[in-house]
Amino acid sequence: MPKVKIPRKSTAIDMTAMCDVAFLLLTFFILTTRFRAAEVVQIDIPASTAQIPIPDNDIMMFNIAPDGKMFFGVDKQEVRLKILDKIEERYQLKFNNQQREAFRTLELWGMDVNQLSDFLSKEPNERAMVKQPGLKIDTTGGNQLEALILDARKADFDVHNNTLLRVAIKCDKTTEYKAFDKLIEALQNLKVNKFNLITSAKNSAE
Amino acid sequence: MAEMNVPAGGGKKGHKKQRAKKMSTRVDLTAMVDLGFLLITFFMLATTFNKPKTMEVNKPAKDEKIKEEPPIKMSKTLSLMLSSRDNVFHYVSPDDIDANTELSVDSANYGAAGLRKVIQRRQAQVKAQWGDQDELFIMIKPLPKSKYKNIVDVLDEMNINGVKRYAILPPNDPIDSLIALRLGETRK
Hints:
The complex is a heterodimer. By secondary structure, chain A is of the alpha/beta class. Chain A has one domain. The radius of gyration of chain A is 25 Å and the shape is elongated. Chain A contains 7 helices and 6 strands, in the order αββββαααααβαβ. In chain A, strands 1-6-5-3-4 form a 5-stranded mixed sheet. Chain A is 40% helix and 14% strand. Chain B is an alpha/beta fold. Chain B has a 5-stranded mixed sheet with strand order 4-3-2-5-6, with helices on one face. The relative contact order of chain B is 0.13. Strand 6 of chain A pairs antiparallel with strand 1 of chain B.
């Protein structure tokens, strides 16, 4: 019998299509990614059946840690800078350009306003190591929290000429109601009666 | 790729002109694909895919709160008191309190079998008495030591059961203070 010779085929595959797909997906992911902000504190949010997605921009964000420490941030960088101006004015502080730059990129912070200057002078990696003590909420002699909310709203008004700034509250599951109530109290004193509580999704059967 | 440019045929000796070799235009894309997928993996992991949801809360403005509204009949209400022990105490305040008034307070958990049943039962009662379950007014009274999760759960239950009227109030009633005292919790 004659031997049947099977012709050897090249094992090479045409990668072009695969490469196309890979880069198409890559482009998609690059464009849709919004990086998670570095967390100052670990916050485990509760779940609810609410379906409204969190608004994309113009947010004043409050984080409350399990121990009641409160952190603050706004999403727009120009608003942040304006807030810093207002803080300078209100507390008779002076920030240099380097500190301003640091504040501009600061997602969330929580400390006595008077410590801010020291904190902003630090190197970025040093700053990440600092344990922030949380916003100072004292009821006697001027409430820094209320002043901050007021300043943020004014700053937003200066930038956008409208009052779209929405309040979002991200609070840990185990935070005591007392701490949350303090924030609500401050907001209501400034006639902010509408806010968003950030939760993760679950279905109602659980 | 295992592509090779094999010189075409055995060169005859008589050939003088050396033709320029035709190079294959194929490029090995394997490495590029590898890189592409690596980056995809990175971006996929870095993306926050399911966006957190938010629950909108509207509070009545502070100053005009009490003046405007006529008092609500207590028999249309349900009070929920959130304790620090991950459960909720619920009671219905009587319309008028006198020496013989009896009040039953019961506790429930936040699950579908606990609080939801309580609210649904109360909705049915209000419907039977007043003809419309939307007459029900729920007073949510969190004690300061209760957890944030609890208040979210309760607000969520309001959504799930379609309770139209509810409010978050400080536990200031005499009844509230009595219950808090029994629980050994502070009200403020």
